[in-house]
Specification:
With 493 residues, this protein is an alpha+beta fold. It has three domains: 35-128, 2-Layer Sandwich (Dna Ligase, domain 1); 155-314, no CATH class; 334-481, Protein Transport Mog1p, Chain A (3-Layer(aba) Sandwich). Helix content is 37%, strand content 19%. It contains 14 helices and 16 strands. Helix 6 (155-184) crosses helix 7, helix 6 crosses helix 8 (198-220) and helix 6 crosses helix 12 (299-332). The termini are far apart. Residues 1-54, 115-148 and 486-493 have low confidence and may be disordered.
């Protein structure tokens, strides 16, 4: 009797011949072009040494669901595609069976090593020689990092963990980047402080944040948000990733999911990765290399995780509101109230304000403008009534000498009718950064406004003069004790 069988179909039986046991239909929600179906077409059981019947098919677990049925060859194809890994729980049964015996994929001999083509590529193995170790040899001898029955993490838990981690490491990474910029390029550091840099700031901060995350993950095996939300990143062999592997994964995330921090574009790239996870596929930066497992969360841990994630996103919104307010003040000007005198002044556009502490713990009021490349430092010292402005200027110039070299020439000038002393100088480490200082008195207080310019910039330009006039007006005029005439000497009786 001649063999009239046609070519094998995707189900593993000859086309045109009815199966004794029809395989269970795949879930209707599964996309047509997902890796499972493509692998079924490319690697049908008819091309394998395994049996052609699907009576006892393979199933694997993901997202609390059983997926299948698949033949051994199809499962090997899924393993090559990175859809499943050695730690994926699998079972063999005639249909979806919750009571089936589930075991990790690496514990089954058929999947402990790559399929036949890995041996065919190595002549030593064909000749019976020892050959190199298989890529999953370590997984066979060492237990996987994650428990074999742990499901893969869904998209939303991963999204919240990614958002919280990204906020944390962006704040720290931004500080590191700003510190490096202050040393390497003061002009770039000043631009980073500008609120108008916000839309493109992520492009510069993200690499620092992700590199820092890779360091933390390499040292501790996880990150704060992943630890809190019960997420565990492992290689397909079930091992803990190294620092280099974490770095490669995160920069894959930087490119394929975060789109290098480019606004709007990253919405489309993140949506694409979400679709991959929702369909049961690996993300672009995990495919063929990593899996993210979800540990069970208790009620207390879940409550803490929700609280921390909510606090992280609330903090993010507060920061965004502050950035928007700073951008509005920077572009339109704002009203500033002197904390000492209580008087207010209209600050012209182009300045960004911050209150800081100096080395002695005194408050200093800083105004910076990347438009003209100038930082203005407004500060006050009390208990100086016994000194004249000239005496104070000499003492102050000597005190700042390690950082600034001030000229000996002092110019007396009036600012809105107030007597002031003005002196020029330069930064000690970089003479191209010029300095201009204005000193004036109010009773026993001495106020100073120090303007420091970027290299090649002029500190005492038009915008700086407008700021100086506005700030001087916030300090009321009071009698100068050092200039008050002394009364007649008391006569002994």
């Amino acid at each position: 009797m001649s063999d009239t069988r046609g070519p094998a179909g995707p189900g593993g039986r000859p086309a045109g011949r009815p199966a004794r046991h029809a395989p269970a239909a795949p879930p209707k929600w599964r996309p047509r072009r997902e890796p499972e179906r493509m692998a079924a077409l490319l690697y049908s059981p008819a091309h394998s040494s395994q049996g052609k019947s699907m009576d006892q098919a393979w199933w694997y677990g993901r997202d609390q669901e059983q997926r299948g049925p698949f033949s051994t060859a199809q499962m090997q194809a899924l393993l090559r595609e990175g859809v499943i890994g050695p730690a994926t729980p699998i079972a063999r049964s005639a249909g979806p069976d919750p009571a089936a015996e589930w075991v990790p994929l690496h514990a089954v001999a058929d999947f402990a090593a790559p399929p036949e083509r890995a041996c065919a590529a190595d002549p030593a193995r064909l000749d019976g020689g020892p050959g190199p170790a298989t890529p999953f040899a370590a997984a066979e001898s060492a237990p996987p990092l994650a428990a074999p029955t742990l499901p893969l993490a869904g998209p939303w838990r991963r999204f919240f963990a990614r958002g919280a981690d990204l906020l944390l490491f962006s704040v720290v990474g931004g500080y590191v980047m700003h510190t490096v910029a202050e040393w390497a390029s003061p002009a770039f550091a000043m631009w980073l402080r500008s609120p108008n840099a916000g839309p493109v700031l992520g492009v510069f901060v993200l690499p620092f944040a992700l590199a820092l995350e890779a360091v933390v993950a390499g040292l501790f095996g996880t990150t704060p948000a992943k630890k809190l939300l019960g997420l565990q990143v492992a290689t397909l062999a079930g091992a803990r990733p190294t620092f280099e592997q974490h770095l490669r994964r995160l920069f894959g995330l930087y490119w394929s999911a975060l789109a290098m921090g480019v606004p709007l574009v990253n919405l489309f790239t993140m949506w694409r990765q979400y679709r991959h996870l929702k369909a049961g596929r690996a993300t672009g930066y995990d495919r063929g290399a990593f899996q993210v497992h979800a540990l069970p969360l208790g009620r207390l841990r879940m409550t803490g995780a929700v609280a921390v994630v909510a606090a992280a996103f609330f903090t993010q919104q507060v920061l965004m509101q502050q950035i928007r307010a700073d951008r509005r003040d920077y572009n339109a000007g704002f009203s500033w109230r002197n904390p000492v005198s209580g008087a207010s002044a209209a600050i012209p556009p182009g300045w960004l304000y911050a209150e800081q502490k100096n080395d002695t713990g005194d408050s200093v009021y800083t105004f910076s403008s990347d438009k003209i490349g100038v930082v203005a430092i407004f500060a006050m010292e009390e208990g100086m009534g016994h000194l004249t402005l000239q005496e104070y200027q000499s003492i102050w110039a000597a005190a700042v000498q390690p950082d600034m070299l001030m000229d000996e020439r002092v110019v007396a000038a009036a600012v809105h009718g107030r007597e002031t002393l003005q002196v020029h100088g330069a930064m000690a480490r970089n003479a191209t950064r010029r300095v201009h200082a204005t000193l004036f008195k109010s009773g026993d207080q001495i106020w100073r406004l120090v303007l420091v310019a970027l290299p090649g910039r002029e500190p005492d330009g038009t915008l700086s003069r407008h700021l100086r006039e506005a700030l001087v007006d916030t300090v009321p005029e009071r009698p100068d004790p050092a200039a008050a005439p002394s009364g007649p000497a008391a006569q002994p009786i």
